[in-house]
Amino acid sequence: MDKQTVHIKSLFQKLADDSISLEERLLLLNTIERAQANDLPNENDIAFDQEDTTLKMTGNEAHNIFNNIIQHIPEVANTNVVPFWKRTWVKVAAAIIPMAGIGLMYKLSMGESRIITYHNNASTIKLVALQDGTSIYLKQKSTLRLHEDFLSRSEREIWMEGEAFFNVQQHANKPFIIHANEDLNVHVLGTSFNVNTNNGHPYVVLSSGAVKVTNKQTSKVLSPGDMAYLKDGELLVNKKIDTLYYTAWKDHLMAFHGTSLQEVLHQVAQHYGYSVTFTGSKMRKELFTGYLSTNNLQQVLSTLEQTFNIKTTVKDQQIIVNN
């Protein structure tokens, strides 16, 4: 058994034991994705060291599970989906890894090329690791698309919807291009930055390095701390902004600057799936600047209670504010 087969077997064993890390899941998924049929080890070579009924399924069963998942995603339910597995053990991995690691990954036939789509329909931020070494933090309800032969092309192109933070691996001969919408494109060599296409007002915030942002009329080269955005079709740039304010989400934080307490609690309640009620109007218009956790509601409420001298109660999916 060669070293590659031994390594793949160890990753599958970790998957069976539920001890596999996110990075190892991504590595296993990328290995399967890149492999050709004649490069894959025999099924007998990766037999598990323990009984695990989770993995005891036929290729047809895995195929049916995958199709069932697809049918529950409206945007791809009626699309010609081409599974990327080639052999039985690959089918098993394909049925398990996407759900556990990065939401759902699927491939669509588009002419002579295939498009790989990453969609984060989970409740948490997902990390996408590309084959060129680029890492992408994909926000909830956001989507990335790229060609299957991404690395073999002269330009590394990605199409996105929603919001994502990119750490792009430098590759001097292959520029990295993000198509944020029909009018806004980001050209990169190696850098870290945030792109947001939500609400029809796309913008780019540069944390480090340099990028060129273009639309149909003009282009702008950004320096760290710059934000490029579209206003009435015109490409504009703000200088020396607080980049953390725009990228805090990837660190599981909500950022506020001069925001009323009423609006802060409205956004907090919306994020956690609650409603909010004020029993008085005294503190509603008080302003808040700072950062609040997106994964610890009690910590958020404790911070606001101490800051504004209020009392909050959580009951029946409702946040009640007393002042």
From TrEMBL:
Domain of life: Bacteria
Domain FecR protein: 124-212
Domain Protein FecR C-terminal residue range list: 254-321
GO molecular function terms attached to this record: sigma factor antagonist activity
Residue stretches in coiled coil: none
Matching Gene3D superfamilies: 2.60.120.1440, 3.55.50.30
A Pfam family: FecR
Protein name from the UniProt record: FecR family protein
